Fold this protein.
Amino acid sequence: MTSSTTKTALSVNLNKVALVRNTRHLGIPSVLRAATLCLEAGAHGITVHPRPDARHIRATDVRELHQLLGSWPGVEFNIEGNPFHNLMDFVRDLRPQQCTLVPDSEGQLTSDHGWDLEADAQRLRPVIEEARSLGVRVSLFMDPLPHAMAAAREIGADRVELYTESYASAFGTPRQDEVLQGFARAAQAARAAGLGVNAGHDLNRENLAPFLRAVPEVGEVSIGHALISDALELGYAATVKAYLAAIDRAFQGR
């Protein structure tokens, strides 16, 4: 868990690089090259979300990235997915530093809600126990509901990843402060329960710093769609540095 003066780590989600690559049979753009350029620019980790239909990240990508990151000590590999689909095969085989459990359906366009622990706690408990027994940190993808945080800890999670789409939608509107206060309360409840706090989904260069200022002690943000979109214009290195600068701005004066 981070302190108020420990900067948030940036993990780059590479799914959209793979999505573009999969439209041809040429192997470009390269997922491995994208990872390397992002890490050289200072990214702290790499995230992938392999889905059963392999519409973007493929099983071969996950394994090749795992091998690549073996040459980057201290860099985190975060594999996301539904543990009742294909995620646990990767966790068992590769033992990444972190797995993020996400309750998406097989045909879902993108993740759009967190776990309902009243309904899912009992089936999640053995999955979390198995991952942790393999030395893998477990993060649960959660809506920003303060009352749910203690339950996440009770079933064994190490962290929660707060689903930030509602903040991104409210950013720049009269509802922004109200929504941010809700995220701050959820993060405080998570920390009070002994959980680390991650965040992700629709965070971007503009809304990242305000989020981190309002929601302190976020250990890690996972950003893919906006970051890769920015990289189409700026390049990977300049984009990663821009996101790191946004994190720096959030911590100025603390």
Notes: The mean pLDDT is 95. Residues 9-251 form a domain with the TIM Barrel fold (CATH 3.20.20.70).
